[in-house]
Structure formats: structure tokens, C-alpha cells
From TrEMBL:
<dbReference type="InterPro" id="IPR011078">
    <property type="entry name" value="PyrdxlP_homeostasis"/>
</dbReference>
<feature type="modified residue" description="N6-(pyridoxal phosphate)lysine">
    <location>
        <position position="24"/>
    </location>
</feature>
<dbReference type="GO" id="GO:0030170">
    <property type="term" value="F:pyridoxal phosphate binding"/>
</dbReference>
<protein>
    <recommendedName>
        <fullName>Pyridoxal phosphate homeostasis protein</fullName>
    </recommendedName>
</protein>
<feature type="coiled-coil region">
    <location>
        <begin position="157"/>
        <end position="184"/>
    </location>
</feature>
<feature type="domain" description="Alanine racemase N-terminal">
    <location>
        <begin position="2"/>
        <end position="212"/>
    </location>
</feature>
<comment type="similarity">
    <text>Belongs to the pyridoxal phosphate-binding protein YggS/PROSC family.</text>
</comment>
<keyword id="KW-0175">Coiled coil</keyword>
<dbReference type="InterPro" id="IPR029066">
    <property type="entry name" value="PLP-binding_barrel"/>
</dbReference>
<keyword id="KW-0663">Pyridoxal phosphate</keyword>
<dbReference type="InterPro" id="IPR001608">
    <property type="entry name" value="Ala_racemase_N"/>
</dbReference>
<dbReference type="Pfam" id="PF01168">
    <property type="entry name" value="Ala_racemase_N"/>
</dbReference>
<comment type="function">
    <text>Pyridoxal 5'-phosphate (PLP)-binding protein, which is involved in PLP homeostasis.</text>
</comment>
């Protein structure tokens, strides 16, 4: 089942984006099944699940931290944290700088829609945050991340993804020293097709690969 799901989506998407299988609601066994099916990028949103899956998976798998991360929990996962999709506060960067012995590829989480989520910076705050982050040696900002609003309105979702893409473009033109924003982490099971149309390079797919909980 997981194998079929993944194979179908991989075929549909091709190689244009990295598929992150979000395993947060799924067991180690199911996660290993996804690995066997060819998945090499996994997403978890809690330190416990992150560490559990990291430990179980072979070394060539990447486990991405995709959820809100409390700064006091950074220490727990610092050794294994290589991809963080939810950087939106300097306190997290400080803890990474303090506890990590390697650089961490980070996405700035942006709250494009200004709707429901309390997480993420508004687009106007991003340039200054990038300026702040340039002081941190362990932080390598590679992209922007957003969550679409909870809506059935696909044109609204498309608008949100488009705005993130435009923000990336604009920041690239600003041409900051040592910051190369190339990636867009956007799109989940219900909207990854819309995200890809708008330039997503990482999609985070849970239920459509792993099955619903
Ligand atoms: C759970 C989660 C996903 C995947 O959600 P699905 O709808 O199951 O695809 C993607 N991104 C984040 C940040 C999540 O927490």
C-alpha cells in the first residue's frame, strides 16, 4: 500500500521535487516500509518521533523536522538535526548555534495568509530575520516554508503558494552574502499539485503516502 502510494506520487511528480513522507502518525514499521519503497526523506514534528525514526532508519535517510520546535527542545535533537522547516524565531537559532556541531539546513516558516496559524513570520519580517541569522554559523538558510490555509478554495491556496514563490524571488534579488534561498517547502497531501505548479521543491506528504491514521 505505502509502496503503491509512493510509486504513484513519484511517477506523477517526477524528479522535480523532493518528496518528504510525513510519518508523524505512523509506526517505525510503517516508516521502514516507506524506506523499502524508496523514500529517503521523512518528516516528523515532535522531538520524540524524530529521534525514534532517526534511530530506526538507515544512515542514507534524511529525517526533516517540519513542525513547531520549542527552543528548549533543540538540545535533544541537535545531533541529528540537518533539516529544519520551521525556523521563525531567533531563540531557535541560538540553541542550534549552541548545541549543534554541524550546519543545519533551514527553511524560514512564513505565514503568508495571515490566517489561523500563529506560527511563521509575516513576509515583511523575513528580510530582517535573514539579516539576524547571518550572524549564526550553524544556520544555513536554504529556503522558505509555508502551510496553506485550511480551505477548499484552490485558487486561494494557489495565491498563497504564489506569494511565497514571489517572496523567494525578491529575496534572491536582494542578493545577501552567504544566504542562498533556492528552495520552497510547500504542499501537503491535499494541495501538493498546486504547490508544484507554483514552484515547490520540497513537498511534505503524510496521509497520501502513509495512509490515514
Ligand atoms: C502533518 C504535516 C504534513 C502532512 O500532512 P498531510 O495532510 O497528511 O499530507 C505536512 N507538513 C506539516 C508541517 C505537517 O505537520
Amino acid at each position: 500500500m505505502i509502496k503503491d502510494n509512493y510509486t504513484n506520487i513519484r511517477q506523477e511528480i517526477g524528479d522535480e521535487a523532493t518528496i518528504i513522507a510525513v510519518t508523524k502518525y505512523h509506526t517505525v514499521e510503517e516508516t521502514l516500509e516507506a524506506y523499502e519503497a524508496g523514500v529517503r526523506d521523512f518528516g516528523e514534528n515532535r522531538p520524540e518521533g524524530f529521534l525514534e525514526k532517526r534511530k530506526a532508519l538507515p544512515a542514507d535517510a534524511n529525517v526533516h523536522f517540519i513542525g513547531t520546535l520549542q527552543s528548549r527542545k533543540v538540545k535533544q535533537i541537535a545531533d541529528d538535526l540537518y533539516y529544519l522547516h520551521s525556523l521563525d524565531r531567533e531563540s531557535i537559532a541560538k540553541k542550534i548555534e549552541q548545541y549543534s556541531n554541524h550546519t543545519v539546513k533551514c527553511f524560514i516558516q512564513v505565514n503568508v495568509s495571515g490566517e489561523d496559524s500563529k506560527h511563521g513570520l509575516i513576509p515583511e519580517e523575513v528580510p530582517e530575520f535573514l539579516e539576524t541569522l547571518s550572524e549564526y554559523e550553524k544556520i544555513e538558510v536554504i529556503g522558505l516554508m509555508t502551510m496553506a490555509p485550511h480551505t477548499e478554495d484552490r485558487s486561494l491556496i494557489s495565491e498563497v503558494f504564489k506569494r511565497l514563490s514571489e517572496l523567494k524571488q525578491k529575496l534572491a534579488e536582494d542578493n545577501r552574502a552567504n544566504i542562498q534561498i533556492k528552495e520552497l517547502s510547500m504542499g501537503m497531501s491535499n494541495d501538493y499539485d498546486i504547490a508544484l505548479q507554483n514552484g515547490a521543491t520540497f513537498v511534505r506528504i503524510g496521509s497520501k503516502i502513509m495512509g490515514s491514521r
